[in-house]
Design brief:
The complex is a heterodimer of chains A (519) and B (705). Helix content of chain A is 75%, strand content 3%. Chain A has 519 residues and is mainly alpha-helical. Chain A has a two-stranded antiparallel ribbon with strand order 1-2. In chain A, helix 8 packs across helix 12 (257-282), helix 12 (257-282) packs parallel to helix 15 and helix 16 runs antiparallel to helix 18. Chain B is an all-alpha fold. Helix content of chain B is 67%, strand content 3%. Chain B is built from 28 helices and two strands. In chain B, strands 1-2 form a two-stranded antiparallel sheet. The radius of gyration of chain B is 31 Å and the shape is globular. Classes of the chains: A mainly alpha (519), B mainly alpha (705). Chains A and B meet through helix 5, helix 6, helix 7, helix 14 and helix 16 of A and strand 1, helix 6, helix 7, helix 25 and helix 27 of B.
Amino acid sequence: MNSFPWLTILTAVPLVGALAVLALGVRNKAFVRWTALAFSAISLIITLILWHSFNSTADGFQFQELHAWIPSLNVSYRVGIDGLGLLMLLLTAIVVPIGMLASWQIEQRVPLYFALVLMLQTCLVGTFTALNFFHWFIFWELALIPAFFLVRLWGGSGSAKAAMQFLVYTMVGSVAMLLSFLAIFLATKTFDFTELAAMAQNGTLMPAVVAKLGWHLLTPEHVALVIFFGAFLGFAVKVPLFPFHTWLPSTYSEAPSGTTILLTGAMSKMGVYGFLRILLPIFNPEMQKVLNLLLWLAVATVVLSAYTALAQKDLKRIFAYSSINHLGYCLLAIFAVAKFTGGDAALTTQKFAAMNGVFLQMFNHGLTAATLFWFIAMLEKRTGGVRGLDDFGGLRKVIPVFTGLMGIALFSSLGLPGLNGFIGEFLIFKGSFPLVTWATSLSVIGLLITAIFILGVIQRVFSGPLKEKWAQLPDLTLGERLALVPVIGLMFALGLYPQLILGVVNHTAIQMAIHLRNF
Amino acid sequence: MNWIVRNLWLIPALPLFAAGISALAKQKNRALAAGLAIGSMGISFLLALCAFAHVLVLRSSGQATQQVFNFPWFQFGNDWLSLGWVLNPLTAVMLVMVTFVGLLIFIFSVGYMEHDENFTRFFCFLALFASAMLGVIISNSLLLLFMCWEIVGLTSYLLIGFWYFKPSAAAAAKKAFITTRIGDLPFFLGIVWLYSQTGTLLFYNNGAGCLEPTAITHLLSQTTAIGVCVATGIALLIFCGAIGKSGQFPLHVWLPDAMEGPTPVSALIHAATMVAAGVFLVARVYPLMSAHNGIAGMLTTSTALQAVTWIGAITALFGSLVAVAQFDIKRILAYSTVSQLGYMMMGLGVGGVAVGMFHLITHAFFKALLFLGAGSIIHGCSGEQDIRRMGGIRKLMPITFLTYGIAMLALCGFPLFSGFWSKDEILHAAHHWNISQAPYYMGAFAALLTAFYMTRQVFYVFAGSSRLTEEVTDASHAAAHTDAHAADHHHGSSAIHESPAVMTVPLALLSVFALLLGFFGTPAWPWFQSFLDDSPLAVNFGAFGEGGILPVMLISSVIVFLGLGLGWWFYGRKPIESAVAPDAVGKLSPPIFTVLGHAFYFDAFYGATFIRLNTLLSKISDWLDRWVWSGAVKTITSLVFGFAHLDNFLDTNVVNSGFDEGCEGVSLSGQILSRLQAGRVQGYLKIVAGALIVFTIVLLWKAKI
């Protein structure tokens, strides 16, 4: 059962890196930065090894490790990955170095900053590999700590409030989720995801929980719904789903851009991942009961966040709302898939499409959003933190290469075919349209408004007459260009040949859809 | 399978390669960029001729003229999504037209853009455009077509906004992209709907494609919840894409503004090729468009085709009305393009693929010629675009005048010129349409107006003496539209000159086609029609006498002469003496002329309704976000904390008596946090942990452990 402990090593490498960076101390900042980057490079290499040796046609989890941990509580250390987990590991391994590079200009408490980034990476890896609620939750919660301090200590003027809002919000969600799982644990004596999913599938999970709790004020169905809602809240806040999103814009805009990259590129995927790994297989019957509401919340997430982005004047807030919008498509597809159980072959094909679309969209959003915030970081470095929509104009004249490359990232975010964003959205719409026609049709408005605000950014920042103030703005340095090449290249590669990812995750998507079919 | 079929992808790939190289090249590598673009386009043109010849050979040997090449792209579920390309008469004709016109315009651009500092970028974008456009043409998959279609939209955006430092250009580019995207989103939904219904997006795939009888029959047998046949629903959604791209009413508003781009761009993209992509799309999915449940036969027209016809007829009339009252040389041509695209749509609706496509091809040549001629004039006049300030150019730019005259007569439908044959065929088909005669009358009236506004333009521009030094007082049409070309192109304002050979030779070549192309599709020898429809061909001069062709031809000739005559009556009889003199037709009824001049105030109307609504929605969303959602959450949070404070005493009691292992996450957080400074956080965490513990106690107590 136990393979070579690749996943444990992958979890440990950034932690070791964090300690190493702290040990180096504050004297040589450049050395600290490079050390941190080296550790993230090691993680990337290990992840690529995993990607290479992953068997994309095998069922179940791979690279599994299972060790008894707290026998009295039936808690074991169980890690493993399927296509989805692997994809998230790859995304994390790509986003973290981007975040570090975008934080290169940070001069205060450099070792602590990079140590926290590496700690965050450990937590992310732990979350994406854990198969037991117990230590999954530990990583899930621990991730908040580095994130909190990164926002709080290096953020802008409003960062204290933003960081607190972020912490309290996600903490409340997590507490609710924890309570739900405690209730489940009390009834089932297990925290293992696979076992819980199996129980949910044969319909024994919720009756057992309800019998154990025996709240007489509520009917059994309502008890089950309360339990579901607790778990749901934790993920809904993290993604976020409308209207649990209000922490996000202020957090994303107050955080230093390097940290925002980590938040939007990787941490937001924890929520979607939770929906796929935990909520969908374990709480499906309860989800069914409120699914129409959830669907319309997803549509609201897509449409309202796009409209709100249109009203923003701060580049970071624009892309914060844009992030909400992009992940809204994921939730739309997830709810569409959850809506229909049973074995209808035609619907199953649609679910395969939607599931693959969700996976692709998660990865692509991570890549594109991280890159966009990276560009904002580079812009802030040049302008001393100025990033208002109306502060610029005509920048293409002085920084043509910057404009061109950021333009590519912007059009990727817009979903232009040929770049990475398109196929994910196509598969999501292709799969969701026959499943939930009206909700999907309405969501198209989000695509239109996204185009409007993205072109608005290009128009106001890069076109028009050049503002005198920016006449001396330096274009991208050679180092920056070289660092951007692999990222932009990946955007093209995935846009032209999405099989690179779909070939690996497709089998997992099929398995997940089939698991749902059996409810 | 033939070599050219297997390697058809090279035709779009070569310009793509050129675009890629020149994107990486430095601005100073001008010769490299232009050379690559023209060279790749030249080779593509030769390959397109090969493809054309191949279809001809197949045809003459009596084989099927349609060959496809499909390949798997990516997998999802148990299926692979396949893409592919198709070579059939429609593909072949479009390939030759686009590569040839494109090549000539590329060459013209070398002269026109000579002084532009972003010359290299210009050719990069042009080549990328050509690549995407050729991709649209060869696609055998609606998805691949849509992808190329969107990239065409991107390049159009980049080229309209090429002079990005002009706010008007940046705004026009954005407007073009957004407006066409409004049409593209229903198109997108049509695609996913079609996909979910037929399980494929390949057009042709040995009987399993979505345009082949099995799929069409399936689509016709389904009905949606609102009672519309699925085939009709999908066809109408796809047509929305064509409305946007081809500047059809009511999404035409972007096309006149697109004239902010350099004139070769207007010629290539916004006259000859890209805007025709919508017409091409309808032609490509014609089996779906024309699918109907009625009894097989000529007498039933599908709902979708009726929609195509009416939209086309309205657009044809609308465009020509508005063109009458414009003063910007390029805007006249832009509204003329809108009008002619309407004709093409109408032709598709009433007459079928060959009728609409024939006008598309002839129009591509003479309209490209008109735009390039206008470019040559603007180049010669140092950037002036207002026809009231031109005049007398006939003598100063003789070659331009001659070619412009040919193109103008072709556009008007002057007998024997190419436009005559193609337009007449549309009118003839409209005359015999079984649904209504109204499109015929609308089309005929539009033809009259076309002859009129072109005569007006020609007299303004070429006749009399130069008015270039005079000032125009009418602010709305004045220098605002002046081509940025002038900015880096300094000639004395009076030194109007003929353009260099690199610009006039393409003009001459195009005018040959504008003159002669129509003879490939006359009633006596309908080669083009039989080629596209794959029907037998024979020379038959008796055809003029059949089916009422000759009367319709006579009527439309009379109409053309009437239009030309009216134009001469108003603008040619007395020379236009001053740039500030009121327009001869405008004097008749200034209010109507003003309404036409503002294109029926559509921009203002959209600005006051949709754009305002959109802004309002975004403000409401923002307001809700700031105050309502955020406020509600803050209130709840305060309540939770209040509750936690009340029960805070439990904290100390319970923590000491040991709490559930499950809280470890939170407690661990607390410990780490307390080690790392942060005063208030610790307090809050305590509260949260306290609340958690309270809940747990309640839970455990209720569970009666």
